[in-house]
Hints:
Elements: E1 7-10, E2 17-25, H1 29-36, E3 37-39, E4 50-57, E5 62-72, E6 83-90, H2 92-104, E7 108-109, H3 114-121, H4 127-138, H5 142-152, H6 155-179, H7 187-219, E8 221-227, H8 233-241, E9 259-265, E10 268-274, H9 284-296, E11 302-308, H10 315-323, E12 329-334, E13 354-355, H11 364-375, H12 392-410, H13 418-436, H14 442-450
Parallel strand pairs: 1-7, 8-10, 8-11, 11-12, 12-13
Antiparallel strand pairs: 1-2, 2-6, 3-4, 4-5, 5-6, 9-10
Helix pairs in contact: 4-5, 5-7, 6-7, 6-13, 7-12, 12-13
Amino acid sequence: MYIRDTIAAISTPPGNGGIGIIRVSGDMSVSIAELVFIPAASGGLTSHRFYFGRIIDKNSNEILDEAMAVLMKAPRSYTCEDVLELHCHGGTVVVERVLALVLKSGARLAEPGEFTKRAFLNGRIDLIQAESIMDVIEAKTDAALRLAQQQREGLLSLKIKQAVEKIRISLALVEAYIDFPEDDPGVTDLGVIYDSLNQAKAILAQLVHSYDEGHIVRDGISALIVGKPNAGKSSLLNALLKSERSIVTHIPGTTRDIIEESVNIDGLVVKFLDTAGIRHTDDLVEKEGITRALAKIPLADIVISVLDSSRSYNDEDRMISAALIGVPVIHVLNKCDLPFVIDLPPTFNKETLLHIDAHSGSGVDELAGTVRRTFLHSSGTDDRDVVAITRARHRDAIVAAASIIQRLIDSMNTLLMPELLAVELRDILSILGCISGETTTDDLLDIIFSSFCIGK
């Protein structure tokens, strides 16, 4: 339920900074501005102009800060309501005190994502664009930012609308026949319905296909590094990070817990996880680290199995190989600068093995490139003309709608009853409407916007 009261929140990150911004939205924005802000120049605040002045608690006449204020009158604002922004110094205490003064002057503290939710409810943006705003904020690579900006600009919404329009054409023809049953649908009408359904299916199929890389660009992947003790796992992590993140010693079992660090590999965010060396041990702490490492294997998007080429292939290597059955794996032979000793079993595809020296960094870039190519098969998601879906919610809805469309196409020759056909077509529109927000429930909206930060 949309309550048209006035909300306020800090819109800048917590902690000290150059600027702290308090955002206010609602009918009381103008009156709050008059209560808490005194411009240096005489006169009121003209919409969409910045003013220098002081923030003051008029009850005590205490000056809280010198600040800039901007008032944005509805509907030309982020929320389509009257919006006030106070730009003060970014100290934690001063920002909190200014917010407290604004709340005392009649606003209430905003809920997470409530400003963007109001922008959606007031029709400024649709739900796809609303979700993309958080993606813009959280983007970790240029490619992820491009995809988020495409959705924020409405390119994905446009694709969905194109499919929706095809379904509406079919529904209009079916409803016309239901209203005027004496007019039998001709071959032309049936052909238009059939073509419209196929066109909608093609649009949705393209979007579903785009999810494979779209969500990876947005969310990244996890790569688990496993191997026996002293195989060079920690050295490999350091080489991938180009920093000394993991402790490297000649003593087996140095790494006891899982160390996680993320790297941007040409647009793909990869979270590398360095694990305890897998072996038989009676050390309780080391054993716990090994248990954690083995438990992570089925959860990783890919496993990098590090083999020591300067040592014989032994029971520890066989134990690791057994744990990797059915898991996407990249095998690397480390310490290629030393004499080659390892005798790999016949089951290994030696042509796909990567040879590296983690200590010097030789072959590490090739490994990083292999990881990227495994998940991003092309640069298609970097193209500004390519529209991709990045959220499982969107994909699931599109798959459900496409499934109904395919069922209708398959049943066209059986002369499905017009009333049933109309119900199915309305179901498709309802499912696709959940993506853009046209038919979304309040519960779903609450879930979506609760993931936003307060102040956005």
